[in-house]
Amino acid sequence: MTAYLVRRTALLLASLALASVALFALLRLLPGDPVNALLSVGATDAQIEAARRSLGTDRPAGAQFLSWLGDVVTLDLGSSLISRLPVGPEIAARLPVTVPLTLAGFVLAVLIAVPVGFLAAYRAEKWDGPILNGVAQLGLAVPAFWLGLLLVTVFALNLRALPAGGFPPAGWSDPGAAVTALVLPVITIALVMSASLIRYVRAATLDVLGSDFLRTARALGSSLPAAMWRHGLRNAAAPVIAVLAIELATTFLGAVVIESVFALPGLGSMLTRAIAQRDYPVIQGVMLVSTFAVLAVGFLGDIAQRVADPRLLRGHR
Amino acid sequence: MKRAWTAVAAASALLLSACGGGGDDTPVDSAGATINIGSVYEPQNLDNTAGGGQGVTEALNGNVYEGLFKLTDAGTVEPLLATAHTASEDGLTYTFTLADGVTFHSGKALTSADVKASIERVTAETSKSARKSSLAVVKEIATPDDRTVTVTLSAPSISFVYNLSYVWIVNTAAGDLTTTADGTGPYKLGEWKRGATLSLTRNDAYWGTKAKNAGAVFHYFTDATALNNALLTNAIDVVTSEQSPDALAQFENNPAYKINEGTSTTKLLLAFNDRVAPFDKVQVRKAVSAAIDNAKLLNSIWGEYGALIGSMVPPGDPWYEDLTAVNAYDVEAAKRLLAEGGQPNGFTFTLDTPNYDPHPTAATFIKSELAKIGVTVEINTITSDEWYTKVYQERDFQATMQEHVNDRDVVWYGNPDFYWGYSNATVTDLVKQAEAAKTEAAQSDLLKQANKIIAEEAASDWLYLYPQIVVASSALSGYPLNGRNSQFFVYDIVKS
Fold first, then answer.
1. What DSSP assignment string belongs to B120-132?
2. Chain A residues whose beta carbon lies within 8 Å of the beta carbon of residue B51
3. How far apart are the first and last CA of chain B?
4. Quick check: helix, strand or coil at residue B158?
5. Of B35, B460, B470, B410, the residue nearest B213 (C-alpha)
6. What global pTM score does this model have?
7. What is the pLDDT of residues B37-71, one digit of tens each?
8. Going by C-beta distance under 8 Å and a sequence separation of 6 or more, which residues neighbour residue B178?
9. What is this model's ipTM?
10. Which residue of A has its CA nearest to B393?
11. How many CB pairs under 8 A join A and B?
12. What is the pLDDT of residues A265-314, one digit of tens each?
């Protein structure tokens, strides 16, 4: 396990380094010029040049990359080209929205998907199993923003039970309002995410239900719940954990759309805006933090998978 | 298995119902009320000389910061921090007297030194102010005493006083104005939660008439649907500028809301590159203009809202004249003009179309209209960023569409180097003379003459004037309707 951990950590760091280079290079391949966002119609050539100089975008790309990397290592993500405000604190200010949103959506999705997926597999031969599976398939086809708008129409506009969007100005110091603001976005994320999770849980459960070891355990006199608990769960867990890690990462990135529909001041809305303005330091900062989160989730997922099913470690000896 | 089913259903029901809450419908007394304002224009930063964008004007201009003069919502220029001013006979020297008893929010008294420093911030080399070029005529600023400012210009500029209404008088000792503010206005800056809200609180030590409400919170949205939903759920009281025609239907015929149409200054232009063939021919530009049914276009996009103006001058400008009859819709005349312009069989051109509404819709409409006179339009959709580089900077285009938001901007046609390349020595001269005019009446007269020539030569096709729509709760009154130059004065707003 230790050897695996060392190797996996090295891989994590290498991926991060590679990602930072790719990020920097890709952004500069995009057409357009950040200076445009700063100037209005009527700007003279001299103004344009001066603005470019003050942004530092007139320097060679290599020099820009090295100075950016140097700052990142010292945890300085630079300043926005547009607002001149430091990127690090800006990102930190957005995390209290995006992180609870993503995690709550994820947990709720798991709470929905595990029982529903199990039922869909267990009742596969009956009338309700296929229906559950069908609903999940349908859920896959529903775009997140559409579901969000639907929930807003029903629960905010018609029933007036929940706010249509926004986040309280006081933030988490007004916990009631903050939680209320997140209810609909969390449900949206959870419903969309659970649709795909249900399929995986169902498939994993079907595998286990049809497995030799379960049949053997039952033949030896174990009840189904006991056999599932002792043998089935572990075997079903490994593939589901892998999928969960991917889903959590996807949710983190997918929050962009949800944050926009619900006007939430999270990382997603920050990124959308920065992209529209070609605000390189902000895009780089948000993408770097997101990339790190995705890689870290993958890292933890891999470890959890090996804890759940140590057979996976054998291949690495 | 029945029990498992019940458990799943119960758990889901619990999760869905755990989220109570409710709308905030508590009535408030108006002087203590906080006005919640919805907008899509979040400031980039808080400094209007550092590229803060139109959001910073909307939230802070007239509310937190004040100028020597104020551009009212009606479009007139009134004295504010300058109680009186005189101009020398040659129009080169202006002397301003400052109002008494004005203090910044920090408590420091306003002096002529602050005014000098504030004007110099706008004209400084690093300034990104849109007014920088208009104030380039400022040669020297003197401060003979604490209450008097004398400005010497290098050339007469009748727009000088108007331009000063854009110059914030700031306490330059206040520190970094991109994140903090220290003005003389009726509100102090509260807190700016980036990506979400910006709050203003009433300045009880204000030197003038105090605000009629306790403060305001600007709520920022990137999505128009989310913005309108916020108004529908009472999360906000007013939308400063409705950008989505489709959204209006849900507020029409609803007594809880009021839709107000003010006087806009935003024009949608079909701008030709007047340097290149065939648009270097006046007849061709006139033909294209006459072949497009602007009224039908406006109606299909905005319904009953908006207006046609037939020129670059909106009704809010002092030199407005209705020129819709010039190059009015007339397909037969268009065909004739096309032949006169040497293109009897029509021609093909590329229309660089910004990719956001309403440009793609308008481009398709123009394409079908021009097909009637044998002109083929190839629509090339570009981002606003590409527009700025390709069209504005490199002038690499045949025709394009763009919305021009500012008031008093017909003067750009006097600059042959501007992106659309309209060049007419008479117009250039008239614009120059107008700026050097002794009286506003003379200025108006000269710009009317210029605008008429510009319209008759179809320098561009002015498709329509956008509506300026403020949608508000019926309980609200006293809000500005015209939002001139994105200003949104909060101090008179009352919630009943």
1. HHHHSTT---TTT
2. 37-39, 82
3. 58
4. coil
5. B35
6. 0.84
7. 999 888 888 988 877 778 899 999 999 999 999 99
8. A83, A84, A85, B45, B46, B47, B50, B52
9. 0.80
10. A45
11. 156
12. 988 888 888 887 778 888 888 888 888 888 888 888 888 888 877 777 76
